[in-house]
C-alpha cells in the first residue's frame, strides 16, 4: 500500500524547543508515509539537535542558514518554498510564532514560510504559561486567521520545566494527519526531482572492493578529421570519474582510462593508474592492456562509462583541410569495444572462473526500450541506462536518473541521484556480484562460462564475512 504522502515533498521546519528531538521521529513518520522530506533548522534548534541525523534520514542537506546557497548556486530556502507540497513547523516555539506573525524573516524556517504558497502546518511546544500568554494567543490567532495556517495545538501533561500544563508537542500522528489533510486534493507541486532540493551524498561505503582490480573508462573519444579537427561528443567524464573516485574510496585498485574529460582526474598513486587516450582505437588498445592479467590475475570488472564514438572518419587528412576545398566526410563505424571485451572474456577466462564482471552504459533518448537488447547483444552483466533527454540526467550534469538492468532480467529504477551516489549504487552491485562469483569458485558452483548468477546481490558472502 502506498503512503498518504507518496510523491510529496514536505519541508520540516524545526525551531529551538526541548521537543526538537521529536522532530527526528516526525521525519521518520513522514517518510514512512512516502514523503520526500527536507529539513530546515533555526539556529536555536541546531543547538538542541545537530543537522546530521536529519541529513542522514532525509537524504537532503539540511537548511540552517538563510543566506547559504546550495552547491548548485540556487537559494535553498526559496527552492524549498517553491517546491514543497506543505511545510510543517514542529516544534514551533513562542519566538517562531511571534516572528512569523510579524513576518520577520530572521531564520531559514520563517523565510521559507514567508516565501511559500504551500499550506503551512504549525505544531507549537512551549511552557504552559507561554502558551496562554496573550501575545502567544494573538500570534496564533493571526497565523490561523490571517495566514490560513493549520495550528495543531499542544497537548496537556508534564512539561520540561517540571510543571504540568498545555504545552507539550502534540502527538506526532496528529501532526502527520494534519499534513496529510493540508495537501489532500492538491496536485503534487514539483514532481521533477531537479526542481526540488538536491540530495545529500550518501555516507561512505565500507571497503568492499579491497583487493579488486577495476577498469573504468570515462569521457568522450575524439576522432580526428585532420590534425586540428575532430568529431567528438558532449561527454564530460563526470560519471566515469565519479565511479573511479568511488571505487578507490572502497579500496579497489583502479585503472581509469580517460578520453576527453572536463573534470579533475584522481591523482595517480598507490592503487590508481590513469591512462589517457583520445580516439576509440586508442581506447581499444588501452582496454586490451588493462584487462590483461597483472600479478597473475585478470581485471575483476570493467565499467564502461566512456562515450565511445560510433563513427570515425574513414581517413584522417594528413594536413589541415582548407575551407575552399569544401568537405564531404566518409565515416566508418567503430568496433563495439565492450562487446569485444565480453567476447574475449567468454573465451579466455573460464579456467579460473574469474570472468570479469562487465558493466555498460546506454545513453538513450526518450525511452529505455532498447536497453535490455543492448545488454544481451553485448553480453554484459549490468547495463546502466539513462534517458539523456530528461532534465538533470546525462551529459554534463551532476545528477543522473538511471535504471540498472541485469542479465537475469532485473530492473532497478533509481531516483535522481548525484553521479557519485549512482556510482556507489553500481559498485554495490559489482561488489556483491564479485563476492558471489568468488564464493561460487571456492565451492565449485560456477556455471560453465565461469559466471555466477550475474548481477544478483548476496548480502553476506564468505569473502565479506572473512574480512
Ligand atoms: N560502446 C563501446 N564501443 C562503441 C560504442 C559503445 O564499447 N563503439 C559502449 C559504451 O561505452 C557503452 C555501451 O557500449 O558502455 C553502450 O553504448 P551506446 O552508444 O548506448 O550503444 P551502441 O552499441 O553504440 O548502440 P546505439 O549507438 O545503436 O545506440
Please tag this protein with its features.
467 residues; alpha/beta; Rossmann fold; 8-stranded mixed sheet; binds cytidine-5'-triphosphate
End-to-end Cα distance, whole Å, is 39 Å
Global geometry: elongated
Order of strands across the biggest sheet?
12-11-8-13-16-17-19-20
CATH superfamily of the largest domain: CoaB-like
How much of the sequence lies in strands comes to: 15-25%
C-alpha Rg, in Å? 28 Å
Summarize the main sheet: 8 strands, mixed
Runs with pLDDT <50, length 5+?
A: 445-467
Mean pLDDT reading:
89
Tally of discrete structural domains: 2
Provide the CATH top-level class of the largest domain. Alpha Beta
Q: Any ligands, ions or cofactors bound here, and which?
A: cytidine-5'-triphosphate
Helix content: 25-40%
CATH topology type of the largest domain = Rossmann fold
What is the CATH architecture assignment of the largest domain? 3-Layer(aba) Sandwich
Count all strands and give the number: 21
Please count the helical segments: 15
Q: Please state the structural category.
A: alpha/beta
Could you outline the blueprint of secondary structure elements for this entry?
Elements: E1 9-14, H1 22-32, E2 36-41, H2 43-48, H3 51-58, H4 76-83, E3 86-92, H5 94-101, H6 108-115, E4 120-124, H7 128-132, H8 134-145, E5 150-151, E6 155-158, E7 164-168, H9 172-183, E8 213-218, E9 223-224, E10 230-231, H10 238-249, E11 253-258, E12 272-276, H11 280-291, E13 301-304, E14 311-313, E15 331-333, H12 337-348, E16 357-364, H13 371-378, E17 382-387, E18 399-400, E19 402-406, E20 411-413, E21 417-418, H14 419-442, H15 462-466
Parallel strand pairs: 1-2, 1-3, 3-4, 4-5, 8-11, 8-13, 11-12, 13-16, 16-17
Antiparallel strand pairs: 6-7, 9-10, 14-15, 17-19, 18-21, 19-20
The chain binds cytidine-5'-triphosphate.
